[in-house]
Amino acid sequence: MPLNETKIGHYRWRVIALLFFATTINYIDRQVLGMLKPVISDEIHITEADYGYIVSAFQAAYAIGLLFVGRIIDKMGTRISYALSIVVWSVAGCLHAVARGPLGFGIARFFLGIGESANFPAAIKATAEWFPIKERALATGIFNSGSNVGAVVSPIIVTFLTVQYGWQCAFLVTGSLGFIWLICWLMFYKLPQNSKKLSRAEYAYINQDDKEEEADVESHASVKDKINWWQLMKERSTIGICLSRFVCDWVWWFFLFWTPDFMEKSYGVNIQQMVLPLIVIYTFSSFGGIAGGYLSSKLINLGHHVSFSRKAALLTCALLVVPVALIPGINSLWVSIGIISLACFAHQGWASNIYTLVSDYYPKNRVATMTSIAGFTGSIGGVLAASFVGNILQITGSYFIVFLIASLAYLVAWLCLQLFLPRVAVAR
After folding, report:
1. pLDDT at position 248
2. What is the number of other CB atoms lying within 10 angstroms of the CB of residue 27?
3. pTM
4. CB 3.0-4.6 Å disulfide test: which of 133, 202, 315, 414 passes with 9?
5. pLDDT mean over 36-43
6. How far is CA 252 from CA 205, 247, 410, in A?
7. Helix axes 364-396, 236-267, angle to 10 degrees
8. What per-residue string of b and e applies to 105-142 under the rule 16 or more CB within 10 Å gives b?
9. For residue range 48-97, what is the model confidence (pLDDT) as tens digits?
């Protein structure tokens, strides 16, 4: 926060709190299946390939949702569209409890993906509406850390509910959390210009970049209002961001959905024993989003260009993921957990900056649409990767190939950004 926060006001950080809790619930709902995979696989006889296809159903739905959800958010506004999305994914989360086979879980997973696809486009748009450019990466890092908090809380909730009441109860309880958030969202969220609790000083601070952004929009063809979705896809900056998401987004999904299975198969860890390792992984990674956002924001405040600052932070994060290639040869559970924790920490730092690049290169009225396009390409990569991982594990019985590819994914993604993203004169 800026040094003169007392004079400016801090109401905008309440908005980040709402986005943080929405993202927390989002990740609780999506992680439940990964936690329960060993239990459900034994009870319902789901194979590795089946599980890969179920994960692919979620990713495919996520991708399909992102094709249209950005435009819906830009047209309907953040408040209503976010509310509708959390209703869809909360109902879908509850429906997992009645699934009785791969098809049932695939259908429930599909609708969960449709609903959850709106979370990040809506949150990024809300951040662009409520924060000046120099604070957006930090704000994004804070709300995005909700994904890790959700991943930390989920093992505790899911293990307790499963052991005490069965796995169906775990889906029902976690799926219901979104309805609590919905009440708070509808009560408190408004646009800055419509908020009666926002001071004039804070309103001016939030909108300090407007004139510079308008000038930048006029000089950058990719963000003119007359340009449609397909024209946006032809821009170099769009290609660079989308390629980077396609190449590395799947790695986070891999850690989220397969880490419990990896611990069970490699180290004989059961559902109760994996709670602590998962808490360690996602507690540590929760600081990554804030650290990554802070690093690029700090570089900007030191006088470096926005593009340089984002890319420097992204490269740092990419290098921290490389050690995961060593995991298949490590006999110690906690050494492996340490390396996975570092990689997840790095991913969250990466996410804070890759999301913020969209609001750097595009104006507020295109942020949700562009975030959706980038998320769509990332999800397509996730669909292909999930099926690939499931089949590789079934064929080889080893995680070696998967960890090796994952270790290099972020460096390749960073090179895509270097090749395609220009040094745009982004407003600060």
Report:
1. 93
2. 24
3. 0.72
4. 202
5. 84
6. 35, 11, 11
7. 40
8. bbbbbbbbbbbbbbbbbbbbbbbbbbbbbbbbbbbbbb
9. 888 889 988 998 898 898 888 878 888 888 999 999 999 999 999 999 99
SS3 per residue for the chain: CCCCHHHHCCCHHHHHHHHHHHHHHHHHHHHHHHHHHHHHHHHHCCCHHHHHHHHHHHHHHHHHHHHHHHHHHHHHCHHHHHHHHHHHHHHHHHHHHHCCCHHHHHHHHHHHHHHHCCHHHHHHHHHHHHCCHHHHHHHHHHHHCHHHHHHHHHHHHHHHHHHHHCHHHHHHHHHHHHHHHHHHHHHHCCCHHHCCCCCHHHHHHHCCCHHHHHHHHHHCHHHCCCCCHHHHHCCHHHHHHHHHHHHHHHHHHHHHHHHHHHHHHHHCCCCCCCHHHHHHHHHHHHHHHHHHHHHHHHHHHCCCCHHHHHHHHHHHHHHHHHHHHHHHHCCCHHHHHHHHHHHHHHHHHHHHHHHHHHHHHCCHHHHHHHHHHHHHHHHHHHHHHHHHHHHHHHHHCCCHHHHHHHHHHHHHHHHHHHHHCCCCCCCC
pLDDT (tens digit, 9 = 90+) per residue, 361-413? 877 667 777 877 888 888 888 888 888 888 888 888 889 999 999 999 999 99
Amino acid at 288: G
Cβ 130 vs Cβ 12: under 8 Å:
yes
Residue corresponding to tokens 């999301």: 355
